[in-house]
Amino acid sequence: MKILGQARNLQQQGREVIHLEVGEPDFASLDCLNHAANEALEQGLSHYTPSLGLPELRHKLADFYSHFYKASVSSNNIMLTPGASGALQVVLSAILDADDKVLMADPTYPCNRQFVRLLNAKVLSVDVSHETRFQLTLKLVQQAWQKGIKAVMIASPANPTGTVIEQAELVKIARFLGEKQAYLIVDEIYQGLVYNRPPESILANQNLPENIIVINSFSKYFGMTGWRLGWCIAPDKLMPVLERLAQNIYLAAPTPAQYAALRVLEKDALQALEKRRLIFLQRRDTLIDALEAIGQKIDCHPDGAFYLYWNISAFSNNSEAFCQALLEQTGVAITPGTDFSDAQGKHYVRIAYTKECQILIRAVELIAQFIQGLKTQA
């Protein structure tokens, strides 16, 4: 967020800035969902919904899982929330007590750690590398296991790396945690935005233990970032607890956003989103090709989301200083890996390919000039 603030300040001073630090699609909301929200408001549908969310939207999400993921999900196990952050907050509040432990990969989305600490619980970070595509494995979870672990969090596709964990490995972890009476929290926020592979949900697998919680959102794949609408899917035993927490923390998710989400799950809207996914695929390939053309090796090509995690250790062992200087000298804004990783973050940066291909190419040209300057100084 520091780089984002500095980039905006430079823009206010009249500097041209290429924003590749923001984890937000550059597309506007689909017109059809804007119209749906307006129609709902014109009809006076602006009151609180039930704390679990509009029943018709919960049913529609269950149908979406059936058709999109081939997963059998009951609407009774779905709760709408103010963004995925709202889902994660109530889920962690439901399952954690003070001093409980949550295991997660390093690197990870930084808010995951902060939500755990907010509840006076403890984060156990497992250093993962490109050798496991920056994902946890059953072996790593078993090696890190200790008394007091209440849950393991896994994101697929992951922020900041864009990598996907294989479903077979994820199921093995779920079953191991079932034996340990611990929860598996799967962040599927970027599912749908996957490349050269079908979209996947852990819930499509058979014979799963009753310890799986899925977090998802309308922000990324559906392009509804500012609408602040997410959901969680949880076991039967947790639903009454989640409902009570929702009633006391935020009461209900935003009503206009829920009516808009009903529309975005229709066939024509999903077809429009598929076209956007293909654009992100083109951008990913353009960015990778441009970086490799200037001699940069990418440890892991992203499987999904819209992020590329780039190892800059050949030029710098301080990603914050690297990003700061790059912004000041070229106007290209990217995110230091230290925002996501305590272990190796100083050697990595995250590039969000949320701009048009020609802008990505120009950004890499400026990065190449910057790198050449570093080599000259050395």
Automatic annotation (TrEMBL):
Residues 16-361 form the Aminotransferase class I/classII large domain. Coiled coil: none annotated. The keyword Phosphoprotein does not apply. One of its GO terms (biological process) is amino acid metabolic process. Keywords: Aminotransferase, Pyridoxal phosphate, Transferase. Its cofactor is pyridoxal 5'-phosphate. The keyword Phosphoprotein does not apply. GO terms for molecular function: pyridoxal phosphate binding; transaminase activity. InterPro entries: Aminotransferase_I/II_large (IPR004839), AspAT/PAT-like (IPR050596), NHTrfase_class1_PyrdxlP-BS (IPR004838), PyrdxlP-dep_Trfase (IPR015424), PyrdxlP-dep_Trfase_major (IPR015421). This is Aminotransferase. It comes from Thiomicrorhabdus sediminis.
